[in-house]
Amino acid sequence: MNGENEFEQLDCSAVIADVWLLLDRECDEQSRARIEQHLEHCGACFEAYGIEAKVKKLIGRKCGGEHAPAGLRERLSIEIRRTVILTETDLVVDRDADD
Q1: Residue 19 half-sphere exposure, CB side, CA atoms within 13 Å?
Q2: Sign of CA dihedral 68, 69, 74, 75
Q3: Quick one: CA torsion of 5, 91, 44, 1, rounded to 10 degrees?
Q4: Pair 52, 39: CB distance under 8 Å
Q5: The pTM is what?
Q6: Which class for 69: exposed (0-12), middle (13-18), buried (19 or more C-beta within 10 A)?
Q7: What share of the chain is helix, strand, coil (3-state, %, to 5)?
Q8: Most exposed residue of 7, 9, 15, 98, measured as fewest CB within 10 angstroms of its CB?
Q9: Cα 86 to Cα 69: distance, rounded to the nearest angstrom
Q10: Which residues contact 16 (CB under 8 A, 6 or more apart)?
């Protein structure tokens, strides 16, 4: 992939699902660069990233640095991804219903 087309290849739902990986610095350099490039060009994803960053900061302040158990963290990650995928599917179904 070349640099310009790489942005277009990233699905917004995938970027939103991976925002927490970026915020938690848990993605590799290549993934980080792709996500950041997408965020630079996609206002909707950038806005969602900003909201998630604020949520992360608020949670950090209110929880006093407590860490969630690994199992909970994994379940939350799966549910977030599932929600993004279901929302994307619902939007496609709704578009078809209007025709």
Answers
A1: 24
A2: negative
A3: -10
A4: no
A5: 0.52
A6: exposed
A7: 85, 0, 15
A8: 98
A9: 26
A10: 45, 48, 84
- Can you tell me the distance from the alpha carbon of 82 to that of 51, in angstroms, rounded to the nearest whole number? 19
> In a 3-state reduction of DSSP, which class is residue 1?
coil
Q: How far apart are CA 5 and CA 64, in angstroms?
A: 42
Per-residue pLDDT of the chain (99 residues; tens, 9 = 90+): 334 444 455 688 888 888 888 888 888 899 899 899 999 999 999 998 898 888 888 887 877 766 778 889 889 888 887 776 666 555 555 455 554
Phi, psi of 24 (to 5 degrees): -90, 0
Residue 69 three-state SS: coil
Tell me which residue range forms the domain holding 44: 3-98
Three-state DSSP state, 95? helix
Task: Compute how many other C-beta atoms are within 10 angstroms of the C-beta atom of residue 91.
Answer: 11
